Amino acid sequence: MKIDYIRPVFDKTTPRFYIETYGCQMNVNDSEVVASIMQKAGYSITKELNDSDIILINTCSIRENAEQRVWGRLDVFRQEKKKRPEVRVALIGCMAERLKDKLLENQVVDIVVGPDAYRDLPKLLAETESGQKGINVLLSREETYSDISPVRLDKNGVTAFVSIMRGCNNVCAFCVVPFTRGTERSRSPQTIVGEVEELRDKGYKEVTLLGQNVDSYLWKPENLNFAQLLEQVALAVPQMRVRFSTSHPKDMSDEVLVTMARHANICNYIHLPVQSGSTEVLKRMNRKYTREEYLERIKKIREIIPDCGISTDIIAGFCGETIEDHKATLSLMATAAYDFAYMFNYSERPNTKAARHFADDVPEHEKTERLNEIIALQNRLSLESHRNELGKTVEVLAEAYSKRSDKDLCGRTAQNKMVIFPRKNYRIGDTVLVKIVSCTSATLKGEALD
Ligand code: 5AD
Ligand code: SF4
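^ thats the input. predicted complex w/ 5'-deoxyadenosine below
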């Protein structure tokens, strides 16, 4: 598809945009798509807010505090606009979709663009020239931005995301995503493999295939499922590491596990959100699996891929959650022996099934107490998982300097465990054999073998 944009007229010859991203990996990847659209339309990127003509803020609605942070940022942009009234602010992403023209009432915001309308950004920006505000929050059944080559914003040059699908057809009772990102649609395997090969040619060493629910990927013209796509990608770039996220327990097939086991370059790591360990709560959440079914999936992973890293998402204090339900979550965590978890207090989101049908009846302090117990348990499990690595030699893809010292490199094992080690003569992008000598619940430390 050819893209012809109307280029807005600015005083400067190359108008500059600045972009901030909140939320999930999908949003990070969307910002890269947006950056590509903006560059094609004649804008150049800047890392400095005060050097920009356009401020883009890519937003998240998943929890209330994610939205609060964005409102806080809008106050900062207000100050910037006071100093430089010609600056334009575009609020894009999930909050744009959720709050729509309500956002335009905010004086700071000039345009509001939802996740399926990014191609319209340059046109809407051009219209702001005449003082108009602009909005496009139409969701699409087709848009996958397939033809757009994302501009990699996180410039480690080693790891990158490639989105394989958009939207979500599940209706988890707590989740706002189906409203903000629309229905599920898969991207063609040809464009996915093409983008991954492009990354390889640029020297990237690892790719993460992204989707809200990768297991329901289906390219209808060829009846190609996720396991088959994964295999195609693994075969196309045998020297690259391949990861994916996120898996859904009700859809994750043995075929995917067997494919992972068959290809050395597919990382042995699965992010499998459980949300709760109580079948009753799972039912109210509309997750479509029971505690037992979930644990069966974990068992199968361990059977087919014995050294698989497993992480999860957990929500504390969902509607109607009793102490017994909470204890069931703790016991499931211990059985699953997660290596890592993202853990949250339940946050009611407007219009979701839970908001419409159930009372948000676990008091905040109780939610926090439960969450703290979940976090404390996960810290113990993570420490245990790391202790199991002591004395082993693991393969680490160096992706950055350590935050504490540029004499150290850091990177991940295939199982997604973070390792820090003295740099010696190694460089970012190298795959290094590291002997693990110590650990905390957050990281492993080791010595590179020569
Ligand atoms: N409250 C708290 N956590 C939520 N998540 C999604 N919606 C909510 C909500 N309303 C969590 C889930 C999901 C992760 C991305 O965010 O655990 O897997
Ligand atoms: Fe990502 Fe969901 Fe947040 Fe949207 S609401 S940015 S899809 S985490």
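The mean pLDDT is 95.
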